[in-house]
Design a protein that fits this description.
- By secondary structure, the chain is mostly helical.
- The mean pLDDT is 90.
- The longest helix is centred in the C-terminal third of the chain and has 34 residues.
- The protein contains 4 helices and no strands.
């Protein structure tokens, strides 16, 4: 877990240095905050342009639950990482990738049970609607 986080931090640091170098080479004189504004804004907009058509299609084909699942899954990933980082920072636990994995798998298993129960109920309702 520790090595994974250090690798991610290293990659982000290299990207940050690249943007600063690009900024300096082209004499843009943008501050770090202005660069964050531009880079994160552009990443966010790229994700909107990528995901909006997919989510629109899912909504039109009555797959709104998939959209909800994707959103919650993303929040769960962020939350589990935040909890592990918080444990490390506060000294209340050890930061382990396995904790993150088990938390995410816990959500996936519970969602699978929910989806199964929901599917059974929808099937039963569909049977009664036919008559």
């Amino acid at each position: 877990m520790k090595q994974l986080l250090y690798t991610i931090i290293h990659l982000i640091s290299r990207a940050h240095e690249w943007f600063l170098t690009l900024n300096d080479e082209h004499a843009l004189f943008l501050s770090d905050k202005q660069l964050h504004f531009l880079v994160i804004g552009l990443i966010g907009m790229a994700l909107i342009f990528l995901l909006h058509p997919i989510f629109t299609l899912l909504a039109k084909t009555d797959h709104v639950l998939v959209i909800s699942w994707l959103y919650v899954f993303t929040v769960i990933i962020v939350l589990t990482f935040a909890i592990e980082i918080g444990e490390r920072a506060s000294g209340t636990g050890t930061m382990e990738f396995a904790d993150i994995a088990f938390g995410v798998v816990g959500f996936m298993v519970m969602f699978a049970v929910f989806a199964l129960v929901r599917g059974v109920f929808k099937f039963i309702i569909d049977i009664f609607k036919r008559d």
